[in-house]
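Case study 2.
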Amino acid sequence: MMSNYNNSGLSYIAVEGVIGAGKTSIAQMLAERLNAKIILENFEDNPFLEKFYVKPEEYAFRTQMFFLLERYTQLQEVHQKELFQNFVISDYIFEKDKIFAYLNLSDDELKIYEHVVTGLDKGVVVPDLVIYLQSSVERLMTNIRKRSREIEKEISEDYINSLNEAYNYFFSRYKATKIMIVNCEETDFVNNPADFDELVNEIFKSDLSAVKYYNPSLRKAAQ
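Prediction:
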């Protein structure tokens, strides 16, 4: 099966989604399946993030700039992929930084942000495929509460709702590379091996188009 993956033309795959969508877990599972180099966002390294969830207006800019520069530094690793590995998997794309910036920064802060990000954009490799894990606010909040991360304890449902709307808007218009939009509402890729196997099969189908919608619940209903 690995040879089929190798012939797919997909060497760099990014998994995206709102906080609580399961993107890191899926990225880790894909990396294990494909024996891939993995690049994970180190959100716990951001010293401002927990403070941002408590006082967003005060800490938004510092939180954003830390993430921007860290993401840029991390994704330079894509240029240095080990020769014996055929795949790179990440749990974010560089462009997603702008979703948070436009949602959280003031106009004056955005001017500084845009000045910096314009100089960085050209130095980042675009994935061959982005997998966008789409879910409802209710399920996202359930997942956030279930994993009980200390740093996320102050996240509000209103913030996740705004973020979810911003993500859906962004990825409905995303054209930088191929995108696969996955409805995760009634599927558990992490705990159900059969669901994950089906996801991998969908990713590596030869007819992968510029925009693909994958709804596992419709497939199950048709069986």
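The two ends are 24 Å apart (CA to CA).
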